[in-house]
Structure formats: structure tokens, C-alpha cells
Backbone:
């Protein structure tokens, strides 16, 4: 399914979003992440440490949401964004940026997108051995601009 252009522009044109996970007691946890959106699979991917609160929460409760937005500091009616909701899974437990190609075969395109989009981060930040790829299988997206909302079920 092709999503509306205004959603695509936000998902492909921004570098970070805010992921909300919840633990088994539905206690929310919100953190910023670098992400990659893949329209073909309708998934959002991010990389995090397997010891993070996000990973612990996803293990207990896979329901997540991510918000990517653009804010206008002068006029909030120009603010726009996308909220994506779905189920998250941890796709690989290994140092993602250093995995051999055969292991990355399934996620190679996503890995290359991360490498291209975040080259400066990858080159200037030492990466941990416990980095994992998390994928969000999108079930619903909401777009807003100012007070106007549009919803899409996938």
C-alpha cells in the first residue's frame, strides 16, 4: 500500500523520531532514536543496545509507537508529523555495523540505508557489541498538520 505523499516526505526526510514502548505493567518509556523507514515492507527500523530499556520493554510488550514530526517555532498550526503504531521485534543480536554480509542478507538494504543516512554518526561514535536492529511492523499511521488529522490502516 502506498501512503500519502505528506507522510512519505516526513518519514524519508527526517533523521530521528520518538519511540514509545511500555513494560508489562503498561508503564510508558519514550526515547529519541535514529530510524529508517522502508515503504515496501511498511516497517520502521532503528538500532539500539540490547541492554536498553526499549529492548526490555519490547520483550515484555511488543506494542510500540513512533512519532516523527516537524515543528514550526513561530506558528504551531504549521507543525506536522506522523505517528506510526505497530508491533516491534528485535531482528538481530550482534554488533550490527560489523556483521558479515551473509548474516545481513535479510536486512542488508536496511543496513545500507542506515550506513548511508548516518555515516557521520557511524564514523564518529564507537559502536557497542550489543547493538540490535529493532523493526516496527506498522499497523496504523496518523498524519497531522496543525489541528488536522488523517489516519491510514495498513
Residues:
Amino acid at each position: 500500500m502506498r501512503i500519502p505523499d505528506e507522510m512519505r516526505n516526513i518519514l524519508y526526510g527526517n533523521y530521528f523520531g520518538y519511540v514509545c514502548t511500555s513494560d508489562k505493567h503498561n508503564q510508558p518509556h519514550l526515547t529519541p532514536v535514529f530510524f529508517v523507514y522502508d515503504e515496501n515492507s511498511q516497517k520502521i527500523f532503528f538500532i539500539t543496545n540490547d541492554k536498553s530499556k526499549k529492548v526490555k520493554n519490547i520483550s515484555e510488550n511488543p506494542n510500540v509507537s513512533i512519532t516523527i514530526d516537524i515543528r514550526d517555532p513561530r506558528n504551531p498550526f504549521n507543525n506536522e508529523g506522523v505517528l506510526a503504531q505497530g508491533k516491534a521485534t528485535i531482528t538481530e543480536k550482534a554488533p550490527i555495523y560489523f556483521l558479515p554480509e551473509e548474516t545481513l542478507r535479510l536486512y542488508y538494504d536496511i543496513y545500507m540505508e542506515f550506513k548511508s543516512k548516518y555515516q557521520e554518526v557511524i564514523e564518529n561514535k564507537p559502536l557497542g557489541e550489543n547493538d540490535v536492529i529493532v523493526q516496527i511492523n506498522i499497523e496504523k499511521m496518523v498524519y497531522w498538520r496543525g489541528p488536522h488529522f488523517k489516519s491510514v490502516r495498513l
Q: What stands out?
A: The radius of gyration is 16 Å. The helical segments are 5-13, 53-60, 101-104, 108-117, 119-124. DSSP finds five helices and seven strands in the chain. Strands lie at 16-22, 28-38, 43-49, 63-70, 80-93, 131-145, 148-153.
